[in-house]
Every structure is written in structure tokens, then in C-alpha cells.
């Protein structure tokens, strides 16, 4: 159960930043990421006085033909370390195929394997009708299909991570507040996000980064108590990648640290040498 909190809390906290911008602006151009970019985070979990390094989360980009179209294939995986598998094994996989010119989602897939819980979710998008068809299968339950009405400029969980990085985050004024609509699987959540200005962050490896800091109040549910702040620090440069994330959850706290970034399109100018 605890690892379920860790993995879900990290992905939701990472998704918070992406969705507040995606509902405010549409895609214009991508000068931020390119083919074969790969970013890795280590997730740590705290229960009482002990911090445990629980697993890794990766994000990757590849150019790919899909359904006869040129696409960006976005991928994310979450895996517990083998030493943690004994307590709670996690193997989570996210895939998104998007149009490079419009950033419209073509298809999104989410495969969750957490302990005794399995979830298979596929969402097929039809931008011309502003609808998406979601098919969800959990454990031995029957397949559930939902038709979701989409407002303009809403994207899937994974493509929104990359969409946000294409936006000019530096122009947001400190204390600016935005009400967020987050699409996760077949549900929409309202979250308040607030800009906290710029700050230098020391990463776990001792390196310092110039960052833009955000906070978000999460909705009450199985992971968060409600009105809890998730803090996100994003590099203040042309890459705009999260460096550090922290959140309080119902049982303990969770943190995610950047440990590797390969194939970046732009120089890492946020790193203070």
C-alpha cells in the first residue's frame, strides 16, 4: 500500500505543473525537447523518521511512425528497486503518441501493476469532435468504456508534461493563482496552482540549479488529506525540466530528485557551476 502512495503521489505531483498551463494556453512551438531525450528521477518515501529510496521514474521521447503518422512517442515508467519489491512491487508504464505539429494526443496508454492491483487504460482522442474514448480494465472487473468531452487545449497526462515545458514559465508573476482542471483516466479534478517565484535549489548530488518554484493544493482522496501543498521546482532555462518535487501524503511524505538528464535539446544553463 505504501508504494502505491509513492508512485501515485509522484506522478500526480508531476502532472500538477503540466495541467495548469495546458488549460490556459495552447501549443505554439517546441524549442524545448527533441528526439531521444531521457530523464530519470529517484523517488524517496518517508514514514516516520526513516527515508527510503523506493524506486526510479523515467521520461523518454522518440520520433516514431504510428498509425501511418509522424508522431512524438512519449514514454514514462515507474519501477521499485528490487530490494523494495519484497514489500510492494510496482511496474507502471505510460505511453502517449502525439502530433508534433499540433501537440494533439492521438492515443494514450496506462498500464499499472502495483501489488495485487492491475489497471489497463487506453484513451483514443478525436480532436475534431473534442472527445476521447477511454477504455479501463481493473483486476478481474469488466471492461468499462467512457466518452469524455474535452475542452480546448486539454491533453493527456503525459503529453501535458511536455506541453508545459514549451510554454514561457518565466513570465508568471509570483503569487499568480490559477484554478486547474486535471484529466486523469476518465475523471477531471480541480486543483489550485500558485507561482512562488524563482529560487536556487540544491539537488541531492550537491549541484545547484536556478529554478522556478510552484505550489499546488491537492484534492482530498486516497493519497492526499486535502489542501496539502505539493512543491515543484523547474529549471529556469530553455529545458524547463523539474529538478525536485516534494509532497505530504496520508501516510508519510514523498520526494522526487533529478538524477540524470540525457539527450537534452538545449544546454543546461540553470546548473550553477
Fold and architecture overview:
The protein has 273 residues and is mainly β. The chain has one domain (2-272). Helix content is 12%, strand content 53%. It is built from 3 helices and 15 strands. The protein has helices at 2-22, 82-85, 157-165; strands at residues 38-47, 50-66, 69-80, 90-98, 105-114, 117-126, 131-138, 144-149, 177-184, 187-202, 208-218, 228-235, 242-248, 253-262, 271-272. Strand 2 (50-66) and strand 3 (69-80) form a beta hairpin. Helix 1 (2-22) packs across helix 3.
Furnish the topology, listing elements before pairings.
Layout (H helix, E strand, L loop, with lengths): L1 H21 L15 E10 L2 E17 L2 E12 L1 H4 L4 E9 L6 E10 L2 E10 L4 E8 L5 E6 L7 H9 L11 E8 L2 E16 L5 E11 L9 E8 L6 E7 L4 E10 L8 E2 L1
Antiparallel strand pairs: 1-2, 1-14, 2-3, 3-4, 4-5, 5-6, 6-7, 7-8, 9-10, 10-11, 11-12, 11-15, 12-13, 13-14
Helix pairs in contact: 1-3
Biggest beta sheet summary: 15 strands, antiparallel
- How many structural domains in the coordinates? 1
Can you tell me the residue ranges where pLDDT is under 50 for at least 5 consecutive residues?
1-24, 220-224
User: Helix/strand/pairing class, anyone?
Assistant: mainly beta
Cα distance spanning the termini: 40 Å
Amino acid at each position: 500500500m505504501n508504494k502505491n502512495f509513492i508512485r501515485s503521489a509522484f506522478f500526480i505531483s508531476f502532472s500538477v505543473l503540466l495541467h495548469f498551463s495546458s488549460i490556459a494556453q495552447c501549443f505554439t512551438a517546441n524549442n524545448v525537447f527533441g528526439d531521444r531525450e531521457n530523464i530519470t528521477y529517484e523517488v524517496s518515501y518517508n514514514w516516520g523518521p526513516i527515508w527510503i529510496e523506493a524506486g526510479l521514474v523515467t521520461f523518454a521521447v522518440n520520433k516514431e511512425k504510428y498509425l501511418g503518422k509522424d508522431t512524438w512517442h512519449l514514454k514514462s515508467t515507474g519501477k521499485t528497486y528490487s530490494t523494495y519489491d519484497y514489500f510492494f512491487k510496482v511496474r507502471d508504464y505510460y505511453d502517449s503518441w502525439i502530433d508534433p505539429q499540433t501537440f494533439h494526443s492521438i492515443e494514450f496508454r496506462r498500464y499499472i501493476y502495483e501489488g495485487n492491483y492491475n489497471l489497463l487504460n487506453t484513451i483514443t482522442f478525436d480532436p475534431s469532435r473534442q472527445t476521447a474514448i477511454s477504455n479501463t480494465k481493473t483486476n478481474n472487473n469488466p471492461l468499462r468504456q467512457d466518452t469524455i468531452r474535452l475542452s480546448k487545449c486539454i491533453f493527456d497526462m503525459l503529453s501535458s508534461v511536455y506541453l508545459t515545458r514549451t510554454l514561457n514559465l518565466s513570465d508568471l508573476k509570483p503569487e499568480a493563482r490559477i484554478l486547474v482542471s486535471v484529466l486523469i483516466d476518465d475523471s477531471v479534478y480541480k486543483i489550485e496552482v500558485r507561482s512562488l517565484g524563482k529560487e536556487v535549489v540544491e539537488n541531492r548530488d550537491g549541484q545547484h540549479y536556478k529554478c522556478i518554484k510552484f505550489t499546488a493544493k491537492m484534492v482530498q482522496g486516497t493519497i492526499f488529506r486535502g489542501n496539502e501543498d505539493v512543491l515543484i521546482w523547474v529549471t529556469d532555462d530553455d529545458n524547463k525540466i523539474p529538478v525536485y518535487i516534494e509532497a505530504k501524503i496520508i501516510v508519510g511524505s514523498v520526494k522526487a530528485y533529478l538524477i540524470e538528464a540525457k539527450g537534452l535539446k538545449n544546454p543546461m544553463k540553470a546548473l550553477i557551476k
